[in-house]
Amino acid sequence: KALDSMGRRPVLLSGLAIFLFSVFGYYWMASVALVLALRFVHGIGWGIVTTTYGTIVSDIIPAERRGEGMGYFGMFTNLAMAVGPLIGLSVSQSFGYGWLFGISGGLTGVAMILTRMVEIKAPIGMTQPSAAAGGGLFEKKALFPALLALLTGVMYGGVVSFITLFGQEVGIENVGLYFLFNAISLMLVRPLAGKLFDKKGPFWVLMPGGVLTGIAVVVLSYSTTELGLIAAAILFGIGAGSVQPSLQAWTIQRVDPSRRGAATGTFFSAFDLGIGGGAMILGAIAKQT
């Protein structure tokens, strides 16, 4: 809602500032309680940044190419989420957590500088930010795509949270291969899925993408070799890589330009809730089995 009432740039810079403070703050945390408290603050920054970037991109992309544009945007977003853990593990193991937090903070600082350099315009149909101040925090028209995003987040959160432990349990040493091949498949499928969305609509992307994601989880659960792990990573990358940007494009397609901020916030809130809640729920289930 703040995006629609205050404008994109002030909200984005505020989110990046919170993000930057949190990343550097981890270095001085001396207890689990403090880490959890800072993690909460970090999550606020993350939620602001992801929502704002998604809204800005939806403002820029022409309506007739929204699926393709979201595909490219989602390609680089999920590429970072796939490669990030791999790089983070490598840096922390080789140089320590201090270097990890320093590099993360430096990248956040670069993002703040680039944000100041980018021209951000109000979307067509929304002349002044204050004109969009009405409405609630969440957009009702975005609830169904958000529900599907929540389910996607549950699967993604479960896999990312427990893939390392799963690899140790079944004897797969190089779990990093999962993130590598997942990232490659994401890069390849995003633009193609976006173009299909623009030509055929959401059904022709979401249905096969959802099926492939489910198959990937099943394949992963039975994998005991690196080959099985790679196969699951590719299938999951194709499936989730098709679903997530298509859901986001569909969300924007369903709402008025003046409510894009609220709609994007609804979408990402559901997706993030799925990631966090999914990890907790699936972890509890795994503990009982």
From TrEMBL:
Keywords: Membrane, Transmembrane, Transmembrane helix, Transport. CDD domains: MFS_YfcJ_like. This is MFS transporter. The keyword Transmembrane helix applies. InterPro entries: MFS, MFS_dom, MFS_Exporter, MFS_trans_sf. The lineage of its organism: Bacteria, Bacillati, Bacillota, Bacilli, Bacillales. GO terms for molecular function: transmembrane transporter activity. Residues 1-289 form the Major facilitator superfamily (MFS) profile domain. It comes from Brevibacillus nitrificans.
